[in-house]
Write a structure and sequence with these properties.
heterodimer, A: about 400 residues, alpha/beta, D-Maltodextrin-Binding Protein, domain 2, five-stranded mixed sheet, four-stranded mixed sheet, 15 strands, about 15% strand, B: about 325 residues, mainly alpha, MetI-like fold, 14 helices, about 75% helix, about 0% strand, flat
Chain lengths: ~400, ~325
């Protein structure tokens, strides 16, 4: 008799557990790993949100950037896509093309939209529809080692490429183990490191539906980088150095000037607190330019909880409190106006160097198969950096393979 | 023997059929399971390779052999094929040859042999990814251990960025590939060496055979089946080996260290071209399959011939071979 009661009780508990699990609407959020702080920030958002919506069950999963795209691809293919994901904005094109991202225009209110700095909404707008909300933004600028520049007798950092070449020569004269200009030559964003030069020389990535990298500006841009290598103004054999490698050299005080994003400030703070450095705009050629990159929070079309997902975005993820927390802790540029007004942003001359460049920001063109085109460009750059090919020939070859990728769309 | 017993007991033909079929019926479930596990993925990949497939694995219509023609017209296809062959032949060849003296030394009786064996086996316990990361650091152009050592020895006068150019990166990767393949191959050889009958070596000594003759006419022929196993298994592993090259260079610079399997990863997960990637995996599968079949038939024919002509050594080898596999 007693045994029977116990079993009944057990079944009852199990049943109630199942019922309550079913009754609680679930939301799966996959976000990218930016730093050790990422998990804590998003869990804080969930805590705040579930305090206001005790019936919601929200699971946050932090995934490494390197695995994120593959992970989401596999999830989507297997029909187990999450409800919300934080992605690189340029992936959005492929998502939209395959009808995977939910357009947000019917959810968003004009008031909420007005909170954002408008230019950051552009990359997530495809065919006139908004498919995601920018969550992190960065622009690129030039970091310079003040101590090295002073030793070389340079007062102010160069404003244009001619000045950069002249200053790099002076820095080279300072000593054996220091290099004037860092040149990234392998792995992720090797192409971006050259786009700064391309854009400032008046080139475009896509021009009239065709690749613009082999244009006059493109050839000038690459010839410049090659001449820097030839004159020994960069570290030797750039194709041995990825982004972290050149940034490490800068932190060791062995690089005069490097082009990179705001995250390096945070790294210097912890890794090389005594480094005396400054931040200036990217050297100008015939034009001024920087690379603008945003990451996006998007909702999946397959989600069963779109309304709840939208509530989570508006009430937690994009609440002023968590926006400020995220941007400050992760070291990005403000994407909403509230953040931009915070004293920690307005009073920071270094961050100002980045925000000042925003009007000249170029974004990656919203075309599918972007990664394949980036790889074709990197191949051309590496051939030139290793001396295997001349700038014009290498760029022409890459441009024609990019054109054929564009035609396949 | 089967027939003899059947005749002796005088069973009917239907009973005999049943008895003959019984073992096949008994192993049928395992065969079906094996076919399902091995066959389904192959069928799936083959199916994908004949369709247009989008980034998310959804089939978008029949494409015939478009994916294959797309694959071979890719500018880097020929280069990748060439490098895959160089990589496989050099790593497997180097491993099979270098493992021989190591196995022979470790088979001798000397103080500390046990420790020496453990040291040789250690790299096996470290994952390939870990080895790749360690070597990437060791070969660093600025602060790498390799450069520091060569510099202190006075062999080089300025640091070399080993992984920055094709001329050094690919040979270095092959060398490391050999290094990490040695433990497995040495183990296979040692298993063989331990199984040899002592008597014939004693007899050879009494007859005045030199160590070279002993190795050439006794050890090598006896070891032949083990060398064959090492060759086939290593070829399969090395041909498909992804982590080392991926961790050290990702195929850079300018695809000069890309082999089929690293390119396959880029096609599938970076470019989202799952259909072309499926075609490439099928091509890779067929290359390996034909190699394995061709080599196994050749090796088997040789073995049969040698066992026919010499008798004892061949059968001893074959017996030891099964022993090595089960360990």
């Amino acid at each position: 008799m007693r045994k029977g009661l116990r079993i009944l009780l057990g079944v009852g508990i199990l049943a109630s557990a199942i019922v309550s699990a079913e009754a609680k609407p679930q939301l799966r959020v996959v976000v990218a790993y930016y730093s050790a702080a990422t998990q804590g920030i998003f869990e804080g958002m969930v805590k705040d949100f579930t305090a206001a919506h005790p019936d919601a069950d929200i699971k946050v999963e932090v995934v490494n950037w390197d695995n994120l795209q593959q992970r989401l691809t596999t999830d989507i293919a297997g029909g187990t896509a999450p409800d919300i994901a934080l992605i690189g904005t340029r992936w959005l094109v492929d998502f939209v093309k395959n009808d995977i991202a939910e357009p947000l225009d019917s959810y968003i209110t004009p008031d909420f939209k007005a909170r954002f700095i408008e230019s950051f909404l552009t990359p997530s707008t495809i065919n006139g529809k908004l498919y995601g909300l920018p969550v992190a933004a960065s622009a690129r600028a030039m970091y310079f080692n003040r101590e090295l520049l002073t030793k070389a007798g340079i007062k102010d950092p160069p404003e244009n490429w001619d000045g950069l070449v002249a200053d790099a020569k002076k820095i080279k004269a300072v000593g054996n183990d220091v290099y004037g200009f860092a040149l990234q030559g392998k792995e992720i964003e090797t192409d971006a490191y050259w786009y700064y030069s391309l854009w400032t020389h008046g080139g475009e990535l896509i021009d009239n539906g065709k690749s613009g990298i082999a244009s006059k500006g493109g050839v000038e841009a690459l010839t410049l980088y090659r001449s820097l290598i030839d004159q020994g103004l960069t570290e030797p054999d750039p194709t041995g150095y990825n982004r972290q490698d050149v940034e490490r050299l800068f932190k060791q005080g062995r690089i005069g000037m490097i082009l990179t994003g705001p995250w390096l400030r945070g790294q210097i703070k912890t890794d090389a607190p005594n480094l005396n450095y400054g931040i200036a705009p990217i050297p100008a050629g015939s034009a001024k330019a920087t690379y603008g990159v945003t990451d996006t929070l998007m909702v999946f079309k397959s989600s069963q909880q779109k309304k709840l997902a939208w509530q989570f975005l508006t009430e937690a993820a994009f609440s002023p409190k968590w926006r400020i927390e995220f941007t400050t802790k992760e070291g990005f540029l403000p994407v909403t106006k509230v953040e931009a007004e915070q004293p920690q942003f307005t009073n920071d001359p270094q961050l100002k160097a980045f925000t000042d460049m925003l009007p000249y920001a170029h974004f990656a063109p919203p075309i599918p198969n972007w990664e394949q085109m980036a790889d074709a460009t990197i191949r051309a750059l590496q051939k030139v950096y290793t001396g295997e090919a001349k700038p014009e020939a290498a760029l022409k070859e890459a441009a024609s393979s990019i054109d054929s990728i564009l035609q396949q769309q | 023997m089967h027939d003899a017993s059947a005749v002796q007991s005088g069973v009917t033909s239907s009973e005999r059929l049943g008895r003959r079929a019984a073992p096949y019926i008994l192993i049928l479930p395992s065969i079906i399971l094996a076919f399902w596990i091995i066959g389904y993925p192959i069928w799936d990949v083959a199916n994908m390779s004949l369709h247009a497939v989008n980034r998310f694995g959804q089939l978008k219509g029949f494409a015939g052999f478009d994916n294959f023609s797309h694959l071979v017209t890719e500018p880097i296809f020929a280069g990748c094929l060439f490098r895959t062959l160089i990589w496989t032949v050099s790593v497997v060849g180097g491993t099979v040859i270098l493992s021989m003296p190591i196995a022979l030394i470790l088979n001798e009786n000397f103080g500390g042999r046990r420790i020496a064996r453990i040291i040789i086996m250690l790299p096996w316990a470290v994952s390939l990814t870990m080895s790749g990361i360690v070597w990437r650091w060791a070969l660093d152009g600025q602060s790498g251990m390799v450069n520091a050592t060569l510099f202190n020895l006075g062999i080089i006068h300025r640091p070399i960025a080993w992984l920055a150019t094709a001329g050094t990166a690919f040979p270095v990767e092959i060398a490391i590939g050999i290094l990490v393949s040695i433990p497995f191959t040495v183990t296979v050889y040692l298993g063989g060496l331990a199984s040899f009958p002592v008597e014939i070596f004693e007899a050879a000594k009494i007859d005045g055979a030199s160590p070279w003759q002993e190795w050439r006419y006794l050890t090598l022929p006896l070891l032949r089946p083990f060398i064959n196993i090492a060759l086939v298994l290593n070829t399969i592993y090395v041909f498909n080996s992804f982590p080392l090259i991926w961790v050290m260079t990702q195929g850079d610079p300018a695809n000069s260290t890309d082999i089929f399997v690293t390119w396959l990863y880029k096609l599938a997960f970076r470019y989202g071209k799952l259909d072309v990637a499926a075609a490439l995996s099928l091509v890779m599968f067929l290359i390996l399959l034909s190699f394995t079949i061709a080599y196994s038939t050749l090796a088997m024919r040789d073995e049969e011939e040698s066992s026919k002509s010499t008798g004892a050594p061949g059968s001893a080898g074959a017996g030891a071979q099964t022993g090595a596999i089960s360990t």
